[in-house]
Known about the structure:
By secondary structure, the protein is mainly α. It has a domain at 31-87. It has 4 helices and no strands. The chain has helices spanning 10-43, 45-48, 52-62, 66-85. It is elongated, with a radius of gyration of 17 Å.
Amino acid sequence: MSFNLANRSFEERAQIEGEKARLFEYWQSNLGKAKAEAGRLIAEKSRRKGKWAEWVRAELDAMTPADFANMVRSEVNKMMAAANSNR
Length: 87
């Protein structure tokens, strides 16, 4: 199986490019909200202590749509990595 778009039909390429454009627009529209939500989750870390990771997983699992939950998960990971590198 090849993932080279040149090996795909015009219709398949157009569909893939359309989906990429939709996801990029969604990302642009929701990035600020995702960063704010990630900040809210991280702010709970000191209060929830050892149960924090479990709580964050539950919060992310409850978020809809899935694309937004994935954005928040990514932002949490970025913020945690930045915080750990500053230690």
